[in-house]
Design goal:
The protein has a single domain, classed as HIT-like (HIT family, subunit A). It contains three helices and five strands. The protein starts with 6 loop residues before the first helix and ends with a helix. It binds guanosine-5'-monophosphate (5GP) and zinc ion (ZN).
Length: 138
């Protein structure tokens, strides 16, 4: 199921370009366009659903397993010291795109935590270089 008005459905289909990090049968991971930190990545199910609570057990399992895989790769290749998993449901909870997603936000010791979009990358070149580092090529 896709929603023709949903930005993330359009990213999954390729109608809107994205910096893909990983894709499998059920999920799609890509770099956040307005990152909180370098390497900030989003993981979405390919089928449209609004809230975490709308997912079937099977889809939720696939989504969290893929999120774990992408996070493990980011931890190793950034490399970072840790990461946040963030997941918002509803406008009141700051969900801006109504298609379920997990944020993976890399974190570093002694760097501090930003919970909003920043100029995370020093340059376009740095973003491209980090993208190459975190892409999972299988
Ligand atoms: P939310 O606030 O819904 O949990 O997070 C939505 C995230 O999607 C935000 O961090 C925002 O920067 C990101 N985002 C919104 N539109 C686009 C887009 O067109 N492309 C990409 N790559 N990320 C997007
Ligand atoms: Zn969607």
């Amino acid at each position: 199921m896709t929603d023709p008005n949903c930005i993330f459905c359009k990213i999954v289909s390729g109608a809107i370009p994205s910096r893909k990090v990983y894709e499998d049968e059920n999920c799609y991971a890509f770099m956040d366009i307005a990152p909180f930190e370098k390497g900030h990545t989003l993981v979405v199910p390919k089928h449209h659903a609004r809230f975490l609570t709308d997912l079937t057990e099977a889809t939720l399992t696939q989504l969290i397993m893929t999120t774990q895989k992408v996070a493990a790769y980011i931890l190793k290749t950034m490399p970072c010291d840790g990461f946040n998993i963030l997941q918002n449901n509803g406008e009141c909870a700051l969900q801006t795109i109504p298609h379920v997603h997990f944020h993976i936000i890399p974190r570093w010791n002694n760097k501090g935590l930003q919970w909003h979009s920043t100029k995370a990358y020093d340059s376009e070149e740095e973003m491209v270089e980090i993208h190459k580092r975190i892409i999972i090529n299988e």
